[in-house]
C-alpha cells in the first residue's frame, strides 16, 4: 500500500543539516586567519597538527553537543512518542495514528540522532583533552607523556575541568543509549547541559577578572545555542517523518527558539562587556571584528525566526491538509538557518581560540580578599551600600526576570478568555521575585562572600522571606489554569509541570513533615560540613546553595499556607504545631552559632584580611543573631497565614453547611434528633425541636 504522507521539501532537509559542519569549519578557518590564533607560537609551539587540530576538534565537539542537546530537547518538549491505542495522556485521549508523527517515527529518529551525537561528543571531548595537553606542553606524546597526562588531570585546574567534562559526556552517551521515553529523554538533556558546566570553567572564563560573571554567562550562552541550533538541525533530520504534524512541531520549536535567542543575546552582551575594553574594539581589533561578525549572524537568525513565526508557520499550517509541497518556504528558510548556525559555531570557536582586547589574566590585586574571592573588596558595609553595591549573576538574574514576565503573561491570558486571577497573588509574586533578584545580585551576595553575617542575611531572606511571597503567588495553580494542554501525546510545559508535581520524588519532598525536616535539617548539614566552604569557594556551589534553600523554603511554606498542588496537608492545629517545632529548631541553630567558639569555614573567613578590621568570630556571632532574629518575623507571618486560612476554612465550612441545610430542610439535624430519641426510647415526635413530615414542631411550653 503506498504511503499517503504528502511529499515535502523536508525529505531533503538532511542535506542542509549535514552542510552545517562544513560551514562551521569554513567559518573557523576564516576566523583563525583574521585573528592569527593558529599562527606558530615562538615558545613551545606544538606544531601545525595541534594548532589546527585543537580548534577543529572543538568545532566537532560543540556541534555534537548541540545535536545531542537539541535531540533530547525535541524528544522531551516537541515531538510525540508512540502512544498505546486509546491511551489517555493526562486527561485526553491521543489522536489515532494517521501517517503523522503520532506513530513515533520522528521521535525515534530524534532519539537515535541524540544517541549517536552523544558518542561523537564523548570521543571529541577526549580528543580535546589530549590536544589541550599537547598545546600546553608544546608537544604531542613523547617520553613520560602518561605521567604528564595524569598530573594534568589531577593537579592542574584546567585538566581537572576537562577530565570532568570527559567523564560527564561519557555518562551522557550511556544515558542517551537508554532513551526510550519522555522522562529518560529529559534526564539525558539535563545531564548534557550539566556536562557543559566544566567547559564553562575553561577558556577565557577561567582567567577572566569577572570570573563568576564569565562562567555563568558562557554556560547560559552555550546551553541556549545547543538547544536552538541543535534543535533546528535535528528537526530538519526528522522532518520527512513528521507528516501532517509538521506545523505543530515547527510552532513548538519556534517558541523554544525564541527563548533561546533571548538568552543567547543576553549572555552574549554580558560576555562582550567582559572581553572588550570599549565599543570601538568591535571595529579596531581583530577579535572585535570577529565578534561583530557573530553578532550580525545571530541577529540574522533572530530575523529568520521572526519570519517563521510571522509567515512561514501559518503558511505551512494552512497547507498541511493538502498540496504537493506544503511548507516549502519554511524548509528553505530552515535549511539556510542551519548553515548560518554552523557558521556561528565556527566563529565562536575561533573567538575562543583568540586573544580578546581585555587581557585574560586577572587584574593585579595582591589583597588576600581578592586572591580568595576573586572579587574586589567592597566598601565598608552600610544600609546604603547594601542597596548600591551590585554584582550580576546572569543565570539567577535572568531566571527572576523571566519568571515575572511569564507569570504576567499567564495572568493576561486568563483575563483575555474571561477568567480572573487575584491581584494580590500577582503582587506577591512580583514582590518575591524582585526580592530574590536583589538578594542574589546586590548587597547581600556582594557582602555575603566576605562577611558571615551578610551571608546569613542572604540565606534567611532566600529560605524564609522570598518563599512566603512565592507561595502566596501560587505559580503552579496559575500555570495549570493558563497553559494549554496537548492532544497528541507529547509533553508541553503543562504536562511536564503536572508530571513533576505528581511524581513520587516531589510527593516525598512536599510531604509536610519531610519539608519541615529538610528545611531545618539542611541548616546543620550545610553549615557543619565542607558544603559551606564549597559554596563559598566555587560558583557552582553557590548557585546550588541558592536553589536548594529557596526551594526548601517554598516546599515548607506551601505545606503551611499554599494552595498549589501537593500531598494532603495536615489539619490547621497540626500545621501550627509543625511550624512552632521547626522554628524552635531554627532558633536553637541560631543560638548554637552564637555560642560557637571556633570559626566556621576558617580557611576562608579566617584569611580574608578585610581592611575594615572585622573580627571574624564576632561577625560569626552576629550572623547567629541574625539567624535567630530574622526568623521571628517570617515565623509570625506564617503563623498569621495559617490562622487566617483556618478562619476562612471554618467560614467556608459553615456556609456550606447552611446551604445544605437550606436545600434539605435540616435533614442532618433531624437525623441527629432521631438518633437521640432512639437512644432515649422516645419517638421523634416526643423530642423537643424535632420535626415530622419535614416540618418542625414547636416545643411544648412547660
From TrEMBL:
**Domain Copper resistance protein D per the UniProt entry, residue ranges:** 249-351
Keywords per UniProt: Cell membrane, Membrane, Transmembrane, Transmembrane helix
Supply the InterPro entries for this chain: Caa3_assmbl_CtaG-rel, CopC/D, Cu-R_CopD_dom
| Lipid bilayer topology | Multi-pass membrane protein
Where it mainly occurs, coarsely classed, is: membrane
Disordered: region residues: 678-702
- Designated name of the protein: Putative copper resistance protein D
Compartments it resides in = Cell membrane
**Which Pfam family is one of this chain's hits?**
Caa3_CtaG
Taxonomic lineage of the native organism: Bacteria, Bacillati, Actinomycetota, Actinomycetes, Micrococcales
GO CC aspect terms: plasma membrane
Query: Could you provide one GO biological process annotation from this protein's UniProt record?
Result: copper ion transport
The species this protein was found in: Georgenia soli
Q: Does the UniProt entry include the keyword Nucleotide-binding?
A: no
| Membrane spanning stretches | 14-39, 59-80, 115-142, 162-180, 187-206, 218-244, 256-274, 286-308, 329-351, 395-414, 426-447, 459-484, 505-528, 540-564, 576-605, 625-647
Amino acid at each position: 500500500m503506498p504511503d499517503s504522507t504528502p511529499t515535502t521539501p523536508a525529505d531533503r532537509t538532511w542535506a542542509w543539516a549535514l552542510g552545517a559542519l562544513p560551514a562551521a569549519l569554513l567559518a573557523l578557518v576564516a576566523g583563525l586567519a583574521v585573528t592569527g590564533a593558529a599562527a606558530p607560537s615562538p615558545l613551545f609551539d606544538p606544531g601545525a597538527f595541534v594548532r589546527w587540530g585543537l580548534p577543529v576538534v572543538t568545532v566537532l565537539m560543540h556541534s555534537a553537543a548541540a545535536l545531542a542537546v537539541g535531540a533530547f530537547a525535541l524528544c522531551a518538549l516537541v515531538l510525540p512518542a508512540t502512544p498505546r491505542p486509546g491511551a489517555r495522556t493526562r486527561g485526553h485521549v491521543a489522536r489515532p495514528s494517521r501517517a503523522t508523527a503520532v506513530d513515533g517515527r520522528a521521535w525515534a529518529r530524534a532519539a537515535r540522532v541524540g544517541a549517536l551525537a552523544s558518542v561523537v561528543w564523548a570521543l571529541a571531548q577526549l580528543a580535546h583533552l589530549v590536544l589541550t595537553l599537547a598545546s600546553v606542553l608544546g608537544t604531542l606524546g613523547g617520553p613520560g607523556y602518561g605521567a604528564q597526562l595524569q598530573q594534568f588531570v589531577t593537579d592542574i585546574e584546567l585538566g581537572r575541568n576537562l577530565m570532568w567534562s570527559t567523564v560527564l559526556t561519557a555518562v551522557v552517551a550511556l544515558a542517551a543509549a537508554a532513551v526510550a521515553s519522555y522522562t529518560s529523554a529529559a534526564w539525558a538533556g539535563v545531564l548534557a547541559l550539566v556536562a557543559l558546566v566544566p567547559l564553562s570553567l575553561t577558556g577565557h572564563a577561567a582567567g577572566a577578572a569577572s570570573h563568576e560573571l564569565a562562567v555563568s554567562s558562557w554556560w547560559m550562552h552555550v546551553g541556549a545555542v545547543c538547544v536552538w541550533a541543535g534543535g533546528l538541525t535535528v528537526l530538519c533530520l526528522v522532518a520527512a517523518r513528521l507528516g501532517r504534524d509538521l506545523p505543530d512541531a515547527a510552532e513548538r520549536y519556534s517558541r523554544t527558539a525564541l527563548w533561546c535567542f533571548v538568552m543567547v543575546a543576553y549572555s552574549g552582551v554580558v560576555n562582550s562587556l567582559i572581553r572588550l575594553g570599549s565599543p570601538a574594539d568591535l571595529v579596531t581589533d581583530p577579535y572585535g571584528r570577529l565578534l561583530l561578525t557573530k553578532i550580525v549572524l545571530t541577529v540574522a537568525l533572530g530575523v529568520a525566526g521572526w519570519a517563521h513565526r510571522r509567515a512561514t508557520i501559518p503558511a505551512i499550517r494552512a497547507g498541511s491538509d493538502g498540496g504537493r509541497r506544503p511548507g516549502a518556504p519554511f524548509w528553505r528558510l530552515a535549511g539556510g538557518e542551519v548553515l548560518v548556525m554552523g557558521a556561528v559555531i565556527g566563529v565562536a570557536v575561533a573567538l575562543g581560540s583568540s586573544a580578546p582586547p581585555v587581557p585574560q589574566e586577572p587584574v593585579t590585586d595582591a589583597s588576600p580578599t581578592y586572591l580568595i574571592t576573586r572579587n574586589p573588596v567592597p566598601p565598608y558595609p552600610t544600609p546604603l551600600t547594601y542597596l548600591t553595591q551590585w554584582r550580576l549573576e546572569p543565570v539567577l538574574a535572568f531566571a527572576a526576570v523571566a519568571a515575572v514576565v511569564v507569570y504576567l503573561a499567564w495572568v493576561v491570558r486568563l483575563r483575555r478568555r474571561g477568567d480572573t486571577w487575584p491581584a494580590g497573588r500577582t503582587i506577591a509574586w512580583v514582590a518575591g521575585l524582585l526580592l530574590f533578584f536583589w538578594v542574589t545580585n546586590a548587597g547581600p551576595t556582594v557582602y555575603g562572600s566576605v562577611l558571615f553575617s551578610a551571608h546569613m542575611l542572604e540565606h534567611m531572606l532566600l529560605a524564609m522571606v522570598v518563599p512566603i511571597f512565592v507561595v502566596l503567588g501560587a505559580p503552579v495553580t496559575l500555570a495549570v489554569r493558563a497553559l494549554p494542554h496537548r492532544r497528541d501525546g507529547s509533553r508541553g510545559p503543562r504536562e511536564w509541570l503536572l508530571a513533576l508535581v505528581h511524581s513520587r520524588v516531589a510527593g516525598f519532598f512536599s510531604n509536610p513533615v519531610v519539608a519541615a525536616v529538610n528545611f531545618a535539617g539542611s541548616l546543620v548539614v550545610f553549615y557543619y560540613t565542607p558544603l559551606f566552604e564549597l559554596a563559598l569557594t566555587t560558583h557552582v556551589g553557590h548557585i546550588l546553595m541558592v536553589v536548594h534553600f529557596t526551594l526548601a523554603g517554598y516546599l515548607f511554606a506551601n505545606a503551611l499556607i499554599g494552595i498549589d498542588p501537593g500531598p494532603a496537608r495536615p489539619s490547621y492545629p497540626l500545621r501550627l504545631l509543625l511550624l512552632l517545632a521547626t522554628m524552635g529548631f531554627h532558633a536553637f541553630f541560631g543560638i548554637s552559632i552564637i555560642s560557637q567558639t571556633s570559626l566556621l569555614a576558617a580557611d576562608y573567613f579566617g584569611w580574608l584580611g578585610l581592611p575594615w578590621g572585622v573580627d571574624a568570630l564576632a561577625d560569626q556571632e552576629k550572623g547567629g543573631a541574625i539567624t535567630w532574629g530574622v526568623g521571628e518575623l517570617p515565623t509570625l507571618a506564617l503563623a498569621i497565614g495559617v490562622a487566617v486560612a483556618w478562619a476562612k476554612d471554618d467560614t467556608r465550612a459553615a456556609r456550606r453547611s447552611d446551604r445544605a441545610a437550606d436545600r434539605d430542610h435540616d435533614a442532618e439535624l433531624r437525623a441527629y434528633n432521631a438518633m437521640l430519641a432512639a437512644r432515649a426510647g422516645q419517638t421523634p415526635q416526643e423530642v423537643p425541636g424535632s420535626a415530622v413530615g419535614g416540618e418542625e414542631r414547636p416545643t411544648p411550653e412547660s
